[in-house]
Amino acid sequence: MNELEIKKIRKRIFWWNFVKYGFMIIISAPIILFYGWLFMGAFEGKSGFTLHNWRFLWEETVLKGLPNIWAITLNTLILAGGVALLTILVATLGGYALSRLEFKGRGPLLGFTLALHAFPSITLLVAIFYILRTMGLLNTLGGVILVKVALELPFATWVMKGFYDSIPWDIEISAIVDGASRFQTWFKVMLPLAKPGIGALSIFSFLSGWSEFVFVYTFILSKKAWTLSTYLKGVIGEFRFVDYGLLTAVSIFYMIPTLIFFLFAQKHLLKITMGGVKGT
């Protein structure tokens, strides 16, 4: 390859990178501008920099009818933590059964599980409302947690099945030959090997519960059981006389756990595929 051909290849690579990164910058610009406006608005007052917009952190009530932010934050943590815990508990067992056990109807059950995830949950609102009222779980965080777990389970079970499928049979059979029961093999051998999947599901389930709005807004009638998503709706009110400084500050406060999760988990999450963990 002569020098002229090398120059042509370098020029082609340069223009390809120029187009590629230019396209990424253009499509990312609206998102970057939006978050920039959000952060600036949270610390901006009539006379410049201010912390007045963050008064909801130390004042009992900032707007008439809004409950205390820390009680609401605790409710949000209970909802998100409950969804994550129950989803992991059931999905690790269900995924193992679908991956390792042979039973009648296993194939149709796999397809039905996937179809359940594609079903739009919003169409079930009325039915779920009557079920929760009959069970006495309407207006409780426990009712919303059960609904969220039921809707998260099909996808979570499929993900865990993929992780179990990626574990060689030889490892499991060796444990059984050494005298371990099926439950001991699952608990002491399979679960530790499926830790990346459990970690990923924990994060996704927690964030799903943390960001839930529709079910909380529909099934929670008491402001004492509000979560941060409905609190944010309360700050907006009827879209008249909105305190935009307060709204942006509460929005950033609401995003903080998401940002913390991303900062601590991004290195591990980027290695995960639906079927296991990528090699390094």
Please, could you describe this protein's structure?
Helices cover 71% and strands 3% of the residues. The chain is mostly helical and 280 residues long. The strands form 2 sheets. A two-stranded antiparallel ribbon has the order 1-2. It is flat.
User: What's the alpha carbon Rg, rounded to whole Å?
Assistant: 24 Å
Distance between the termini: 34 Å
* Low-confidence region ranges: 274-280
Mean pLDDT, to the nearest integer, reads: 85
- Kindly state the number of beta strands: 4
Structural class: mainly alpha
Oligomer: single chain
Instruction: Please describe the biggest sheet, giving its number of strands, its sense, and whether it closes into a barrel.
Output: 2 strands, antiparallel
> Helical proportion?
over 70%
Number of helices: 11
Strand content: under 5%
Strand order across the largest sheet: 1-2
Shape: flat
H/E series: HEEHHHHHHHHHHEE
Compact summary:
The chain has 280 residues and is an all-alpha fold. 71% of the residues lie in helices and 3% in strands. The protein is built from eleven helices and four strands.
